[in-house]
Design a protein that fits this description.
The protein is mainly alpha-helical. The chain has one helix and no strands.
Length: 42
């Protein structure tokens, strides 16, 4: 999402991943993407 501004400073991704198989859900991937593009995100 180049050039996109997010009007918030926090995002909570509730565990939709699976620690047993190592699969990551969409919330984990979205949180990672948002953190990569918003250095001030907590």
């Amino acid at each position: 999402m180049p050039g996109t501004q997010f009007p918030f400073s926090r995002y909570v991704a509730l565990g939709d991943g699976d620690d047993v198989t190592g699969l990551r859900g969409w919330a984990d991937r979205l949180a990672e993407h948002m953190a990569r593009h918003n250095s001030g995100l907590v």
